[in-house]
Amino acid sequence: MESKVSRRLKEAIAPEVLEYMFLPRLNREFTNNFGHLTDINQAHLLMLHSVGLMPTNTSAALASALVQMEEEGMGAVPLDARREEAYFNYEARLMDIAGRDAGGRLHMARSRNDIGATVDRMRSRALALDVLDAMGAAAKAALDRAELFADVVMPGYTHMQAAQPITYGFYLSAVADALGRDMARLQQGLAGLDACPLGAGALAGTAFPIRREAVANWLGFSGVVQNALDAVASRDFAWELMSALTINAVTWSRVAQDFYIWSTPEFGLLEFPDRVASTSSIMPQKKNPAVLEHLKGKASHLIGLLTASLATVKGCNFTHTGDGSRESMRSFYEAAEESRRCLALFRLVLESVEPKPDAMARHARRNFSTATDLADALVREADLSFRDAHHVVGAVVRDALDHHVPADEITSAMIDHASLDQLGRAMHLSEATVRNCLDPVRNVAARMATGGPAPSVVRGRIEVQRQSLQTLLSDGESRRHRLTAARDTLKRDIRALAAKQA
């Protein structure tokens, strides 16, 4: 039995190739690519007819067949792995409906290479817009909660050690900023893929007088890939998008790690409702942060997918190859789907976690996170250099730790004792000044400089962030509207052509 797709091949495909290569790929790709293949075939047909390469009677018959296939759906197409892949199975069904001659004419002036490259861009575009929406939903949740908790004082941490007082709202506002940059990177990737490869052929274009720009317009692209070889050889748009997804995964993983630590009884700063937790099969007291562990693990998964995609391509020639085109894109599609699901979980986490204000305030009062303000007071009121003030307060903290004195019980006398030992003179700060410096609420409220955690500054910043987020989301919506309008035009024009059938 000969090949079902080429008279160049005189033997049937080996059973192992069918079972382990073509069949899994066909089952995976046909469902995902059917709609894109239909749009591509319709746009290509309209172009061939418009430039006179396809007579009206044949064009109308093909248009009618393509409309029928679209209405019947992918389930009406019998799949045969001996036809290798999605395109040949689609073409076989088209030839059954339109006839062998008419159905076989549609492949004029194109190749599976440029078709596949166009499918990849269309599918990637749709997935990236979905992920962009999911990122936006997570960023909105962060901002909503940031505004709600802008006054909730907590310790900020560096090196997992108490650093300076902040607010929980300030923390979430920072997360929203990071998500905004992740969204901007994804927007850049969307702009990078906004060129249509169709018409590039196998790698060297075509001698037929086609109009590539017309096809690009029907498919919602703003232009065409200018070099035919580059059009079929390159999938760097996917690596750019995947890099944005991976950086975003690192963002959510770092937040998940903070929440993971802060929700432990040892910290006791946050609490999750039971609906986002799991339990133990043996230990009845357990409430496990399963969603946080999932998010952290999936971030590693995305890093692996990006690495796998780049490693797949780095040894490929700069032209169309099966590994460079298919296997590298498979990693991207998986990464995009995982990102969309994880971002929905991340949004749920942001909306669900509840700060414990009393515990946060107690930690901030007693764990020396206010020490920097005490050093600042020595600079302002005792005319010390900051380095000397740093030494004095460091000695005070050491003394307090040695005597099990919490930060909010440090006294002016303790400061004088330390300053006499370090500098040979007392500072004579008033007790009121010491109390104010060691009050985390006053501490935070005083940090009014741009980017600071003062509640009024945070709320002002949130308003700016909301506007920026809306701009990012509006850009995504504009892209969606443009794609919808292009597709509506495509469907109208193909039905009009089908109506010309004799």
From TrEMBL:
The GO molecular function terms of this record are: argininosuccinate lyase activity
Cytoplasm among keywords: yes
Spell out the subcellular localization from the entry. Cytoplasm
Q: Which domain of life is it from?
A: Bacteria
Q: Per the database record, which ranges form the Argininosuccinate lyase C-terminal domain?
A: 368-445
Q: Which GO terms describe its biological process?
A: L-arginine biosynthetic process via ornithine
Name listed for the protein in its UniProt record = Argininosuccinate lyase
Q: Taxonomic classification, please?
A: Bacteria, Pseudomonadati, Pseudomonadota, Betaproteobacteria, Burkholderiales
What is the name of the gene encoding this protein? argH
